[in-house]
Structure formats: structure tokens, C-alpha cells
Amino acid sequence: MITSDTKELALELEEVRQCPLCSGEKAVTVQQLDRFIYKKCLDCGLVRLSNRVVEEQLSAIYGDAYPQPKIEMRLPMFNSRKAILERFIKPGQERRFFELGCGDGSFLAYLQKQGWQVDGSEYSSSSVAAIAARFGLTIRQGSAEDLAGQLAPQSMLGFYHVLEHVYHLHDFMAAVEQLVLPGGLIHIQVPNIASLDIKLFGKYTKIWTVPQHVQLFSPDTLQQLLKMHSFEIVKQGMYDPWYSPGIVREGFIRRGQASLFKWDDQRLLCMGVSGETANYVTANEEKSRLSLPRPIYKLLKMGLYKSSEALAHLEARFNRGNVIDLVARKSVI
Ligand SMILES: [Zn+2]
Questions:
Q1: How far is the CA of 273 from the centre of ligand 1 (A)?
Q2: How many CB atoms are located within 10 Å of the residue 90 CB?
Q3: d(CA 224, ligand 1 centre) in Å
Q4: In the predicted model, is pLDDT for residue 291 greater than 90?
């Protein structure tokens, strides 16, 4: 969400010299968007944003509440997540789930409706209040690190599209380790940097989202991270019914618009909430509207939805999907 408060904000950047995963310093540039540079660590392969917005300015980038599309649009995703979680529930076992960084709380509300015991957390107090007002759900406020000392370990904990935003990767994972019972499970989703989307759409895929995505995982680097924190992968997929077609679709749209309207890199920052570019985006928004007769527009839109879904499925089948969706178990020792 671009707000008037963030429009005038001058972003302060800090250089990230060491790899957040292995602390290695040798890295090569793999992508540049405007002045934001992604580098790949030559030791472990993790891709990181090498110049990121200082932590003090994060709230300005994210705003108060994280905008989410309508619940109905996300229902296939909620169903799919629930089905994955249910595979690991033993007969007679209580269905209990904790979501770290639960956004607008709608997945928790959905699970609760299906008879699950739910709990969760959000960083900002305004999100916590919004979830209470909307769903009557009382969740906890704070970071994973804040919770680690207070909350009893969980049998099943999820965090979706969180890891790519985390500033202190090992602190976060150490907290997760503390928050999960021995033998307990975590369910994770992150964008996949090894996805075919990167090859097909280059800088136009929203897998690169600056300045919010500060690191990007492949199945290999994610496994390295989990291993370092005593988790072992027990199930891995590469398709999410809502995110995967959506990411492909966005790639098609951006690529098309970029060539039609001669975008420069600054336009690509529009999905980020970078205040500096907000004015630019607003000024150029007009240009990105195609004036087409309604039936042709509808037909094009349907074609786009169908082909994006088909391509996302195909990518996942060849293990190059754009979302890594995995369940990992914490070691019992
Ligand atoms: Zn590394």
C-alpha cells in the first residue's frame, strides 16, 4: 500500500557484506533493480539483497497493516494448506496450529471454523487489533524472538512468505527452534529463486520484490538453513493454488507492460512500497491502462488466467515451481 506518509520518505540503505546464511563474503551480482542489487553467495548459494533498507525504516515500507486480497480469492490456498497439515495429524490427535506472522489472520480464522485450535502472532499492534475486531481472534503481538521466551513449544507451527523478509535469519530460526516441540512440525512457504519464472520473466517476476525480499531461497539453501536449526524436511512441493498462478500471471503482465509502455526499472519497484518511487508510480499509472473493448479484454484476461495456471503446474511438475512449500520436523534429540 502506498500511503501519503511514505511518499516523501528518503530510504536509507545499508550494505549487507556477509551472507545471512553462511556468513561468507564472496558473492556475485545476479540481479539489479534500480539501485537495489541482489547477490548470490559463492559459498552456500543464498541470494541476498546486498543493499537493504535500514531496519529502523521497515515500518515505513510495510505501513501499518499488510494489505491482503479478499478471502474468497485465497480459499484454494487455505484448503491446500489445511490438507497438507492434516496429513500429519494422527488419528485422535488434537488439531492445533500456530501461525507466525499471520497477516490479516484469515487463515487462522478459516482453520478455526473447521474446528482447529488456533493461535498466532503479528509484529504490529494495529494488525493484532484488526484481527481481534474482524474475527474475534486474540493473537500475540511481537517477533518470533519476543515470543520464544514466553510461549510454550508448539506441535505445529507455520509461517508463510515470511523467511524472505526476515532481517536476522539465524535469530529468527533459533526462535522457531525454541517454539517447536521435539518431533514437532513447521509448515513453510517461500518464493523459489530456482524457479523457471526467473528464466522466463527475468527481472519482471515478482519473486524479486524490492526492498522487502531481503533474501531468496532455493530448495537447496532452504534445506541448509533448516538443517542448521535441527529441522529435517518431510514433505516438499512447489505449487500453491493461489500464489503460483498469481506469480506467473504477474510475470506475463509486467513483461508485457514493460515492452508496451517502455518501463524503466523504477516502475518495477511499484510492487515494493518504496516511498521514493511512489510518486513516480502514481504519475505513470495512467500509461499502464490499456483501452480495449470489454469483450476482448475479458477474453485476454481469461486466456491469461488459464495459461498462467497451466504454466505454474508445469513448472511445479518439473521441480521448478515458483513457491517452495514444505513441512519439516524438528529432531527429537
Ligand atoms: Zn552463503
A1: 27
A2: 6
A3: 10
A4: no
